[in-house]
Write a structure and sequence with these properties.
The structure is a homodimer. By secondary structure, chain A is an alpha/beta fold. Chain A is built from 25 helices and 29 strands. The first copy, chain A, is 40% helix and 21% strand. The longest helix of chain A is centred in the middle third of the chain and has 18 residues, at 391-408. Chain A folds into 4 domains: 9-244 and 258-289, Succinyl-CoA synthetase domains (Rossmann fold, 3-Layer(aba) Sandwich), CATH 3.40.50.261; 295-457, Rossmann fold; 507-584, ATP-grasp fold, A domain (Dna Ligase, domain 1, 2-Layer Sandwich); 589-710, D-amino Acid Aminotransferase, Chain A, domain 1, CATH 3.30.470. The two termini of chain A are 29 Å apart. The interface between A and B is large, with 76 and 76 residues.
Chain lengths: 711, 711
């Protein structure tokens, strides 16, 4: 394998391209790709390749790529699957930088071996593969449309990376009619070599790309994706649409962390943590693209709704709550700003209702007032078609104000609701790249996504909270279990690891006789609980082998004797090792805290409402690890039951810092101890003031270790 | 006041209409209303009224309504507000049936008195008022467009009732360009007389109306609305859009039921209970209207997705989970049905992926297979624009199959994603009243709303669960408190009412001395808890006035003496009435159960997760009362924590029936005892097997009673 891989830049900005499988037959993809490259106005050199020769779209056809006496950066391959390997081989040997394999019929239909062979061959020569099973690549900066799409994208500032070729083709058409201009659209297909992260490396610094939209179906190297996405969102907004939210294939893992993490919630949490905006459907994603790409960053959160109809104003208020848009609330300032254009039966409160009598002049005055006021940072302007205001005037008013707001550095979104004239106005504005929506919810959703991105960008957490751990000691305990062919730790082993990590667990020890029982109890401190220790007695309660809330020496003596007697009666043959004496743990708010090594995303931490509520309320939240302490606190604040930690009904605040420490500790153990795959504390009791206690701890060992040792 | 009110039919089907304020000036509403009536093709007689005389749109103008020698059913009034009363009076005296007051400037700007005067005058003569502050009325059956809208609606099967005139005007335009045909559109404005419920009485039996869409901002007579909506949904689908979800004006009521009920959740729950589909925004509501009005009722729940692209297929699967569309899952049957049109690299599993190679023929075969299979009840067909299938062919394929499915009695929805050709196809189909969507989420949302309606309609609960109560005895207790100027009951009073209603409460009594304390404890049964009873000691725990978990006579004696001693030390001047001895209530699943008299909707019942989780998890659900027992059980099943009642971690099922009884009992008390406004049990402990216990009960008394007695 060659040491050096080609700069990804040449995939998007090739100086010469070839098409292997170019065809004169207009029903073939091999024709459309050449035709699109030529008619798209590509400025570099074009080499159609086909053993039959001739010419296509005015370009001479070469029989073989070897015949081309030029350096070729990108080759589009459209020959049938069985000929692809040979084509790739000839390209690789010629020193081509990128092969864009449009042909399908590989891993997606189970033909994994052939795909691997192709990639291996390319790698040996330092060539990289896009696809297979793709529609190709469009790159605005070099006017390259090396796809078999029926139309050409409009040039613009949005780059699209899609895993689905079919959907991507649809997107080329859809973005064109919606005047959503593209800087690039690329499909990654089977991702045999290049994946989203590789393409992002080019798109992140590229100036023409203002915003990146990605359609994802599955993630392979999640840790790489996290790194690249986090880097991307520092520079520009990224919108991700991921299908498979309802995927039923997830296998219930051994721990809660595992099973809950299998859900879409983990992906969702990670995207938020990376500052990515996650759209639910294509329409929503494209709406956001249009608006965010065209909007300046907001100078603050205070948003004003200006409307000519009360009904749509109220709906926009509802939508603002849904999409977390902060409505400006200073009544006196609002009154001063808008009173000039608000009749008595209108309202200067936010939503500002300038009433159905408002025409162009009133909208201009109101919009100017908001633009010029330093405490108003963004406007959602609504227009409901009336008999008074004509829609032709409306278009120019919207265009003029959009320009003013863009120049003034404040976001402005318009929603226009009505008939033919309103729709025409929307179309006219969209042709000028001014996103206007017909439903107020769409407009508010866009404003909400804009704020969400910039709120993230302005508050990026850079640090990494970590703890010092004696990982060698922890690994020693884990390895001892593995040597016994055990892939989980016993309670005392798990407790030992907690102690190494400085996590408080209930004090306990095993007494072999009455004297020891009393001494242990005095050491631990009353009240204590007692449980028989015997591998022959599974159901300890049924056997009378448990005693709770023992408050003094006499009660301990009575209980010890009763337990021994009960258990002997229950199972005369049972071997009784002793009686466990443990601290009776004080009640407290119960959390579940977990960390696991995810096959896709690496170390994942979790926190949620614990105890019996875990499965029922599913009030849990996730993050990838490491993360900084502020983000750990955000994570805790995100759970619905967070108010319990703040204290309800006159309780004091609980030890939230202590809970945060636990998350960082468990994350650090998973991060640093490769033998351990899952840890879960449930419940972690969190106390008023200061103090947390890990009542129950489960630790699973890594399956990787297992295969290393036993296969 | 006249005994008889005119039949609402004549508002929608008037034989003669007049316009008071008719004008020749084309900038005036008075012109547009006449012009719309004339150009809309109204078949009845038209009488423009204006003191200046002349003629408008070819109709003679009468100076005064009295001059018209004919019976007039509807008069549109467009004169300025100050002249409206006189106009109404002249109409009323002439025997006009309905006055449709378009003019604004009444209650909506605080001019309540004038509005009341107008209504009173109309009522005296048996005339009814629509509005004021409306755009008028459009009624397809009589070709009447008595509005000042710029355009005319398309005729069709959807009736719209809107509270907002401005939004209604926008809707007239919007429905026309979206080819959403209307049977009627009416605005209710200030609802000074006629409200939504009155209009529904006409629309429910009217054959031309297939579906009703309502835009609501606020509800006055909620009980009437519930009655009429429940009647409506038995006959046809009703879609409601209600704004003000985020209304912040709700004042925190004294009980949880009150405060939580103030939220939008109550309205939402009631709409569901009435079988109403609640849309979030206009776009969603209109999409549902188009699809449901055009679709046959589904013969069952089994839905099949047929797609030519994997990506959109997966997204439709996600959307199906979101919108509760049941995907058919019999792999063998699916394979048999679709194998003929599915290439190897496609999939016959649901979503059925007939791949990008599929053209008209393949779609036809696949759609026929689903239509003809008795276990497949509905289809969502998706099409992603490809190079293979041309969009012109697509339109006729969609139209043909839509007809076949309509005739075959199965719902079919199409989503088409792509560029210009796809959009043209969507437009062509919509012109033929075939709803096709460009985003799969929109299509699936429509299918989901269709199922939701018919699932309701096929399972309407008719009965009413009630209990026998000694209301006289309950009212007696409440009246005693009112006589003491108390609007809440003391704990013992509330417990007395619970006992009358047959609700189990913890046993307790007050001991005045040591002997009584022991006797009480023996009567109640150990363990018991003890609390000092003294109005001078507020913080009983701080004073050492509480003892828990007393297990025998000796412990009771010790505790009694300690409490008396502690309290005397704590406050030597305190008057100690005695010590309350109470049963120590067993732990169990904690619910909150409530009932209250809502100013809008009458008796409302509530159930949810109780204890300290009420405010935090807000896991509560509401219903109006009375309701049948099955609906009570549905209500309990709706809360997220329902699995706790089924038993988690090896517990047995809890007494869900007992909890249901409590809901019915509390509802019945509110329904029958007018003195009581709010009851709340929190927690109600629900036990494994059989048994519930109301640990804490709060009862508030009716404010109506209070005003009657003290004002």
């Amino acid at each position: 394998m060659k040491d050096k891989v080609p700069d990804i830049k040449y995939l998007f900005e090739p100086r010469a391209v070839a098409v292997i499988g170019a065809s004169q037959d207009k029903t073939k993809l091999g024709y459309h790709v050449v035709d699109n490259i030529v008619s798209g106005g590509y400025k570099g050199k074009i080499y159609p390749i086909n053993p039959r020769g001739g010419d296509i779209c005015g370009h001479r056809v070469y029989a073989r790529i070897e015949d081309v006496d030029d350096d070729i950066d990108v080759v589009s391959i459209v020959v049938p699957a069985k000929f692809v390997f040979e084509a790739v081989k000839s390209c690789a040997e010629k020193g081509v930088k990128f092969a864009s394999i449009i042909t399908s019929g590989f891993a997606e239909v189970g033909n994994v071996e052939e795909e691997r062979r192709i990639v291996a061959c390319a790698r040996d020569h330092g060539m990289r593969i896009q696809g297979p099973n793709i529609f190709g690549i469009y790159s605005c900066v070099s006017s390259l449309n090396a796809t078999f799409s029926a139309g050409c994208p409009e040039p613009g500032g949005v780059a699209i990376i899609t895993q689905s070729g079919a959907l991507g083709l649809g997107m080329i058409g859809k973005t064109a009619i919606e005047h959503l201009g593209l800087s690039a659209i690329v499909s990654v297909g089977n991702k045999s070599d290049l994946d989203e992260a590789d393409l992002l490396e080019y798109l992140i610094p590229q100036e023409e790309t203002k915003l990146i939209f990605m359609y994802i179906e599955g993630v392979q190297d999640g840790e790489k994706l996290i790194r690249v996405l986090s880097a991307a969102t520092k520079k520009k907004p990224v919108i991700v649409l991921k299908s498979g939210r309802s995927e039923r294939g997830a296998i219930a893992a051994a721990s809660h962390t595992g099973s809950l993490a299998g859900s879409d919630d983990v992906f969702d949490a990670i995207m938020r943590q990376c500052g990515v905006l996650r759209a639910e459907c294509v329409k929503e994603g494209f709406d956001w693209c249009k608006f965010i790409a065209a909007s300046p960053p907001p100078p603050g959160d205070n948003t004003v709704i200006i409307t000519n109809g009360g009904g749509i104003g109220v709906m926009a208020t509802d939508a603002s709550e849904k999409y977390n848009v902060a409505l400006y609330d200073d009544a006196a300032t609002l009154k001063e700003a808008f009173t000039a254009v608000t009749p008595d039966f209108g309202s200067t409160k936010n939503p500002v209702d300038i009433t159905g009598q408002a025409g162009r002049a009133e909208y201009n005055v109101a919009l100017d007032a908001a633009l010029n006021h330093r405490d108003m940072h963004g406007v959602m302007a609504l227009y409901c078609e009336t008999a008074v205001f004509d829609a032709e005037n409306l278009s120019s008013m919207i265009m003029e104000n959009s320009r003013k707001y863009r120049e003034g550095g404040k976001p402005l979104v318009f929603a226009v609701f009505g008939g033919r004239k309103s729709e025409d106005c929307i179309s006219q504005c969209r042709e000028q790249n001014i996103p206007v929506f017909s439903d107020v919810y769409e407009a508010v959703s866009c404003m909400g996504s804009l704020y969400r991105y910039y709120n993230y960008k302005n508050n990026i957490s850079e640090g990494e909270a970590t703890v010092e751990l004696d990982t060698r000691l922890i690994e020693t305990i884990a390895h001892q279990a593995l040597q016994q062919n055990r892939f989980f730790l016993l309670a005392n082993e798990a407790q030992a690891i907690m102690k190494i990590a400085g996590v408080e667990v209930p004090r306990s020890s095993v007494a072999r006789n009455l004297d020891e029982a009393v001494r242990c109890s005095e050491d631990i401190g009353y009240p204590v609980v007692m449980k028989v220790v015997s591998r022959d007695i599974i159901h300890k309660s049924d056997a009378g082998g448990v005693a709770l809330n023992l408050e003094n020496k006499n009660e301990v003596i009575d209980a010890y004797q009763a337990i021994i007697q009960n258990c002997k009666a229950y199972n005369p043959n049972a071997f009784i090792e002793g009686v466990e004496i443990a601290e009776m743990v004080k009640p407290g708010t119960e959390l579940i805290i977990g960390a696991r090594r995810d096959a896709t995303f690496g170390t994942i931490v979790m926190v949620g409402l614990g105890g019996i509520y875990v499965e029922v309320m599913k009030d849990v939240t996730f993050r990838y690890f490491p993360l900084d302490r502020r983000e750990v606190m955000n994570m805790i604040k995100e759970i619905r039951s967070y108010p319990l930690l703040l204290g309800v009904r006159g309780e004091e605040k609980k030890d939230i810092d202590g809970a945060a420490d636990m998350i960082i500790k468990l994350g650090s153990i998973i991060q640093n101890c490769k033998t351990i795959s899952d840890i879960e504390i449930n419940p972690l009791r969190v106390y008023e003031g200061k103090g947390v206690k890990a009542v129950d701890v489960r630790i699973l060992l890594s399956k990787v270790e297992r295969s290393n040792q036993h296969e």
